[in-house]
Amino acid sequence: MKFKAYLDGEEHDVEIQPIEGGYRVAVDGETHDVDTAKLEGSFYSLISDGKSFEVSVTAEEGDVYVVRHGGHRREVKVVDPLAAAAGAHLAHTGRAEITAVMPGRIVKVLVQEGDEVAEGQGVIVLEAMKMENEVPSPRAGKVTKVAVEAGQTVETGALLCVVE
């Protein structure tokens, strides 16, 4: 599983793969094998690089997780890469230009200009690397521009649509 994590305003690329006894976790290309055990409630025991940690992880509103370790409390926002490229980690007001996170072919346009959309609602289906990816709206609002049509090929960064 790949996603973006935002900690103290900094973006990090995270990939997690299950392995025997835990997970292989890569953060910004640095990989660690982590043995995990769920304890009671929201508590977990982690062993990584010969060090043991007990942490508490609780989900908050809006894909935010509060991680507590010792006397420290950190908030981590987790966003899937397509939503991150669409701006889901940004403020939820004003104009949101939704762009292609990767080159591909537009399979389907799910909205029309004038449509009201909810945050996270799919607006475009983009095929890349033989996989169809639904591109979500980063916020609720009105679709004011659709810049692509089905069958069109787009490059990374191409404008797909605008939500205001």
What labels would you give this structure?
mainly beta; elongated; 164 residues; 4-stranded antiparallel sheet; 1 helix; 8-stranded antiparallel beta barrel
Report what the structure shows:
There is one protein chain. By secondary structure, this protein is mainly beta. The chain has one helix at 81-86, and strands spanning 2-7, 10-19, 22-27, 30-38, 43-48, 51-59, 64-69, 72-79, 96-99, 104-109, 116-117, 122-128, 131-136, 141-146, 153-154, 159-163. The protein has an eight-stranded antiparallel beta barrel. Strands 9-16-14-11 form a four-stranded antiparallel beta sheet, with no helix packed on it. Strands 13-12-10-15 form a four-stranded antiparallel beta sheet. A hairpin with a 2-residue loop joins β7 (64-69) and β8. It is elongated. It starts with a strand and ends with a strand.
In short:
With 164 residues, the chain is mainly β. The chain is built from 1 helix and 16 strands.
Report the sheet with the most strands, covering strand number, pairing sense and barrel closure: 8 strands, antiparallel, barrel
Give the helix tally. 1
Give the strand order of the largest sheet, numbering strands 1, 2, ... along the chain: 1-2-3-4-5-6-7-8
Beta-strand content estimate: over 45%
Q: Order of helices and strands, N to C?
A: EEEEEEEEHEEEEEEEE
User: Structural class per helix/strand content?
Assistant: mainly beta
Q: Gap between N and C termini, in Å?
A: 30 Å
What's the overall geometry? Answer: elongated
Mean pLDDT across all residues, rounded?
A: 85
What integer value in Å does the Rg equal? 19 Å
DSSP E strands, number: 16
Uncertain residue ranges: none
Helical residue percent? under 10%
